[in-house]
Amino acid sequence: MKYFYAVLLLFTLSLKAFGEDLLAEVDKYRNPSDSYTMLVKIQSSNEKEEAKFLVYLKGNSKTLIKVLAPKKNLGRNMLMMAENMWVYVPNIRRSVRVSLNQKLTGEAANGDISRMRWSGDYSHVVEKKEAKEWQLFLTATKEGLTYSKIRVWIDAKDKRPLKAQFLTLSGKTIKTATYEDYKKSLGMNRPSRIHIVDNLRKDQFSDLFIENMENKNLPDSMFTEKSLE
């Protein structure tokens, strides 16, 4: 009996390590390094104008977002520090608290471009491991994250993300994202388009285009509320 439990424990630990390693591999496709910038364009079915952002990211806890378009939103820059986020409101000349799961534009939430890593934020269960495709179920380990639960489909050969369902705490699927148009960028193929669909209203969607990525050594002093102005 002791031998049985020892084998079971080893199996459980190996499965956990497998999931952690796999999630870190998946994150590499969306994050070229620990410090980088990216230019993001978002086109939404329910927005007349496209949105553009220049995003500065350092690790998984620091993000500064500069709004480039539309013109009406210029100056509404955003800062994320850990699970806290602020947006600068030009007409009152101060920053106010917002959440990662609040709407950015269309079907995209603030956290869809400010917090790009899953490893370290979620516990996981390996639901399926098949020849062509693996499936993980992620549960948030921190309060204030963009999504409470995520189901992720991963290509078994190269570990790239294929699709993700974003769920509420009760398990209701609210949005589905597909990772598309893989292109060579900073040494590896990365998704240049993320298609997000509202699960309640299938005709409502947003396309996030990652137009450029650059590795940059960003100083910590950049990620302060003064940078929002």
Describe what this molecule looks like in 3D:
The chain has a single domain (about 1-229), classed as Lipoprotein localisation LolA/LolB/LppX (outer membrane lipoprotein receptor (LolB), chain A, Clam). A 13-stranded antiparallel sheet has the order 6-5-4-3-2-1-15-14-13-12-11-10-9, covered by helices on one side. Mean pLDDT is about 90; it is low at about 1-15. The protein contains 2 helices and 15 strands. The chain is mainly beta.
Distance between the termini: 65 Å
Largest sheet features: 13 strands, antiparallel
User: Structural class of the helices, strands and pairings?
Assistant: mainly beta
Spatial sequence of strands, sheet with the most strands: 6-5-4-3-2-1-15-14-13-12-11-10-9
Number of strands: 15
Task: Please bin the fraction of helical residues.
Answer: 10-25%
* Large-scale geometry: globular
**What's the CATH architecture name?**
Clam
CATH fold title: outer membrane lipoprotein receptor (LolB), chain A
* Percentage of β-strand residues: over 45%
Number of helices: 2
As residue ranges, the low-confidence spans are 2-15
Q: What would a concise description of this structure say?
A:
With 229 residues, the chain is mainly beta. The protein has 2 helices and 15 strands. The radius of gyration is 19 Å and the shape is globular.
